[in-house]
Amino acid sequence: MSKNGGACKWYIPDGYYPEKSTGEFVSHEAICVLNPGKKDAIIDITLYFEDREKMDSFKAQCKAGRTNHIRMDKLKDKNGNGVPVGVPYAMMVESDTGIIVQYSRMDTSAGMALMTTMAYPVE
Fold first, then answer.
1. Can you tell me the distance from the alpha carbon of 48 to that of 2, in angstroms, rounded to the nearest whole number?
2. Non-local CB neighbours of 88 within 8 Å, separated by 6+ positions
3. CB 117 within 8 A of CB 100
């Protein structure tokens, strides 16, 4: 752990971007980042799948002393590819400075379900 209580590497084993939405709310998921430090965080995100090669080159940023809710439906890799919908995956979140990471999913495909969990930090 860094001086600010954050870590530079986090794992989220249960990612899933629902294919459908119902009603006025859109299904989505987000990597929720807190950067309590004094340096902006440059964030790299890698996706792992059950039946295909990993996807990397996803980038994000979280300013010093701020939060950033990284919406996975808006995230693109360096080639313009987005997160696949309807496919289970896991995530590795790496930062050049200590951050705190939480994951949340809003699934409106069959009613309303909100799921959130803290990511797993690695020193």
1. 26
2. 14, 15, 16, 49, 50
3. no
CA angle (103, 92, 42) in 5-degree steps:
90
Distance CA 67, CA 19 (A): 27
- CA 20 to chain CA mean position, Å: 19
Tokens (6 digits) for 84:
């696949």
The count of other CB atoms within 10 Å of the CB of residue 123 is 7
Distance set, CA 27 to CA 17, 18, 40, 60, 93 (Å): 7, 6, 29, 21, 22
Residue 26 bridge partners (DSSP) = none
In order of their start, the domains of the chain are: 7-122 (2.60.290.11)
Alpha-carbon distance of 58 to 47, in angstroms, equals 9
Structure token pair of residue 90: 């896991």
Integer Cα distance of 70 and 31 in angstroms:
5
pLDDT digits (tens, 9 = 90+) for 4-63: 679 999 999 988 877 777 767 777 788 999 999 999 999 999 999 999 999 999 999 999
